[in-house]
Design brief:
The protein has 288 residues and is an alpha/beta fold. The protein contains eleven helices and 13 strands. Bound molecules: uridine 5'-triphosphate.
């Protein structure tokens, strides 16, 4: 079994649910408390042992590349002013030289197409895929737990979570088969099942470990729902040839692609910081 070394972050979406904020600023760069959303997700991948970070970007996303670069003038100024705490913070987040790659999805043709754009950078090895608008909070992190399951099972692993069964028609849902360690065999996947037909209430939560065979499938895949090349359609085909395992994540998840989830993430993460907690509680109490 090949080691899991690389992660793909598709960051080429338009972020229309966040207009006007996302007119000039990528939604992945919106700040949750003190750092951009994408930083939480890259940190989750790093904790899982990922060594190379691949970003599929688009127009207006150059600031993401700058965020993961060293800001020489800023570092010098911090040094001159003796701001060692801030310098150490930046150093600790800095990917090592040569461990980030950026490629462009020239047209936003869908998540499946964005993933396919990373094929040459991934090469012939398994890869983690993290949707950068989902912030997951758990110890160990969601991807670290999935990587552990992958070392046991091999194949493909998908992170899933429970949703209200009445809401299942809004998500990609998996069927639950035989249990294995912290995971279970996936017995089918369906994107947005019609009401009352979902095989379970376990929805695909935006974390995947996939084999590179997915690229051959995505290469010839036709457009699906929303006239986009859908990753789930590709995984459905791959599932006929290779095993898929589900990892049932039980931590917190915040969908920062929607304004409600983004606000919730800000409140939840601020509440975890002892210097902010009392003030947040007091403000919410006062305004409610
Ligand atoms: P979303 O469905 O959230 O789409 O994509 P979006 O365009 O980012 O946002 P809205 O719906 O218009 O508000 C899920 C993930 O897939 C990426 C997005 O960047 C996001 O991380 N994506 C989506 C691409 O990289 N390319 C695409 O063509 C579509």
């Amino acid at each position: 079994m090949k080691k899991l070394r690389k992660a793909v972050f598709p960051v080429a979406g338009l972020g229309t649910r966040f207009l006007p904020a996302t007119k000039a600023v990528p939604k992945e760069m919106l700040t949750v408390v003190d750092r951009p959303v994408i930083q939480y997700v890259v940190d989750e991948a790093r904790e899982a042992g990922i060594e190379h970070f691949i970003f599929v970007t688009g127009r207006n996303k150059g600031v993401i590349e700058d965020h993961f670069d060293i800001q020489f003038e800023l570092n010098e100024t911090l040094k001159d002013r003796g701001k060692t705490e801030q310098l150490d913070l930046l150093d600790g987040m800095q990917p090592a030289a040569g461990t980030t790659s950026f490629t462009r999805q020239q047209e936003p043709l869908g998540l499946g197409h964005a993933v396919w754009c990373a094929r040459d950078l991934v090469g012939d090895e398994p890869f983690a895929l993290l949707l950068p608008d989902m912030i997951m909070q758990a110890e160990p992190g969601c991807m670290a737990q999935m990587a552990e399951l992958y070392r046991e099972t091999g194949g493909n692993v998908i992170g899933v979570q429970e949703c209200d069964p009445a809401e299942a028609h809004k998500y990609g849902i998996v069927g639950r088969g035989e249990e294995k360690g912290a995971g279970f065999r996936i017995t089918g996947m369906v994107e947005k099942p019609p009401k009352g037909t979902a095989p379970s209430n376990l929805y695909i939560n935006g974390r995947y470990i996939l084999q590179p065979t997915i690229f051959d499938i995505l290469e010839t895949q036709e457009r699906g729902a929303g006239n986009e090349i859908q990753l789930t359609d590709g995984m459905l085909k791959l599932e006929k040839e290779e095993p898929f395992w589900g990892f049932h994540f039980t931590g917190e998840v915040y969908d920062c692609g929607s304004p409600e989830g983004f606000v919730e993430a800000n409140v939840a993460i601020a509440m975890r910081k002892k210097e902010l907690k009392a003030r947040v509680v007091e403000t919410v109490e006062r305004l409610r």
